[in-house]
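User: Before I run my own analysis I want an independent prediction to cross-check against. Here's the chain; please return only the structure tokens and, at the end, one sentence I can use as a sanity check.
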Amino acid sequence: MRLTQSQYKFLTSNKKFTALSGGYKSGKTFILAFKSVLTLMKLKADGIMAEPTYRMNEDLLRPALERAFEYMGVNYRYSASESMYYTNYGRIILRTLDKRESLEGHNVSWFGLDEIDLLKYEKALEDWNVLISKLTVGEEQYGFVTGTNEGYNFIYEQFVRDAEIRGNEFIKKNSYLIISSTYENKSNLPNDYISTLELQYDKKLQDRYIHGLFVNIGGQLALYNYSDKNYKDLEFSNNRRTVLCWDFNINPMTCIINQEIEQDKWCYVKEFVFSESNTTKTAEAVRDFLIEAGYNGNIELTGDYTGRARKTSSTTTDWVLIQEILSQWKPIKRLKLTSSIRARLNAINKGLESERQYINPNTCKKTHEDFLKTRLKDSGNEIDDENGKRGHQVDAASYFDYNYYPIKLENETIYL
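Assistant: Structure tokens:
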């Protein structure tokens, strides 16, 4: 087994608390599993391992753990009803970070946590404090953390602030952090994996998600790449490819018309933003506009996937209702279940930076204002809607980029 330099430093660290933070697919979950099994064998004592969610335990952690068991010749039995591995050295208890109560009631010698920065800072700190209170068994106790940092969040506060810095290492009395780049693990990835990300990520996203650097996205503008370079004085044309981008909120209900002005170049040319409205009224307003404009082409629809299930009446969902009202243009839906708000914002910021996406700020005034003013919460993973005032047009637009120009490979799972 060939390790990267950062993986080796993480694996051999004897600090009480050791962390490895890095770019996507830099081998973090893989090495967390190996360090955890080695610690189990060394201490012959139980430990807790956790991902933010149950699904991540099943998809990421368990395959990595079982590979580590097999590589080191450790016989194991998994109890699904207990979410627990039994070995001759002790138990590994699998829990989730989204439920504090699942972390209670255990006395262990060590714990291993993956992707803790996906949690809000307050929640991550709460889980951390619960877990360090469980380190009561044996003469040695350890805690391990891996994950991609999400800006100046838990990993930064716990391991970087006030640390001694030595290159990509951050050292404190009881803790040690290594920052790893995706490039370090290049030999274990598809040949075009990194180049594909580089083509689709802007510089800030490359710094964070490839090079593993701390980048301040939290608290910033949601569309930090939006500027006057994205302005175009274009109005609706009845002979362009047309996509209607929807966000389903009663106050306001939003539909923005996006038209392809040349191949893979788009411009928002018309908006429908109605307070205290509903899907029917908004769709009818769009229909009346298209009729008056003499539009004869087909219509494409994109937006919130949950509109497939959300019923605006006793029997009809949002999307079915829109298709019925706009039926003369034979509307086609392009929808995809969104993995996260961050994935949508990554896609739209890339479109703005590359000047794939434009807007007429005069015919889309509310959308323009929303693009300029919508900010993220401190976690960097949620839009600050200012009590419902902001983010609706950003949402509608981000669904377009996420569905038409997603950042490839971002959510794919690759096991080493």
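Sanity check: Residues 187 and 319 are 45 Å apart (CA to CA).
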